[in-house]
Task: structure prediction
Amino acid sequence: MALPPGPKSRIASTWAWFRRPTELLEDCKRRFGSRFTLRFVGNLEFVLVSDPEDVRAAFTGPADVFLSGRANDDVFGPFLGHDSLIVIDGDPHRRHRRLLLPPFRGERMRAYG
Result:
C-alpha cells in the first residue's frame, strides 16, 4: 500500500517542523488534503490524517494492523522505557491501559477539578 502524498524534501520538512510545526501542518493540509505523509531526516515517515472518519478508522481498526507502539518505541522507548504504555501493542497495552484508566474517569476527574 502506497503512502499518501506529501512534501518530498526530508531536510526542508525537518527544518519546517522544528521552526513552525503548525504552519507546516496547515500548509500540507492545504496542498495535499486531509491525508498526507511527512518525511523527516533519519528516514522517519509519518502519515497524518485529519478527517474524522480516518481518525475513527485508525482508533477502531484491527490492533494487529495499527501497531503504533512499535513505531513509537524507536522515538520514545529510550526516554520512557520499552514497557511504557505508548510503546507497547496488543494484550500488554490493554492490560496496562486498564490499570491506568480508573483515575481518569468521571468522578475522579471532577474531584481533581
